[in-house]
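Table S2 (text version). Query chain:
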Amino acid sequence: MRRSQMVPKALRCKSSRAGYGTALRHLRSRVNRDQLWFEGMTIMKLRISRTASAVALLASCLAVAPLSAQQSSPPAEQAPDSGSMEPSPVTVNPSSPEEQAAREAANARQLEMSNAQLQQNAANQAEYDARRSSYESQMKLYENTVESRARAEAEYAQIKQLYDAIHAQWEADVAACNAGNRKRCAQTPPPMPQ
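Corresponding structure-token output:
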């Protein structure tokens, strides 16, 4: 008995191929799709509501923070700026001679190190410039060599083509001469003077 005959005609799915699908199976797949869609929508709504609540909480925290900062009073230790032009306490109470000598020695060391670094940088730059100009001159020499070789190869190709044409003509003349055409035979050279 065929499989399509086992299912009653009333339950067979008309859209199924060769009667293998049933209306029940078709209905079950439709329910599964609808259920999956509903579950997906529910999960998406939960995610949206969580995100919205997190954004609302963050916005309320940001709104409250400036208000609390404005309500605090300035610290009592800071005196308001009077705008006076009096010298600062550092210039009023200069440092001891030992501190000043140590500061000047540190400044002198820093100046020496800075000058040494500048000299090293200048030497490095000069070496770089020399290497770069050497490289550029080598590249020009190479380019000239490549161009010269290309010209020489072109001249050689022309000369070889001319030689091949002359050689082919000579072979044809020899073959014609051997065949009996005396006009194409090479002339005997005149005798050498003694």
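Notes on Table S2: The chain is about 70% helix and 0% strand. The two ends are 123 Å apart (CA to CA).
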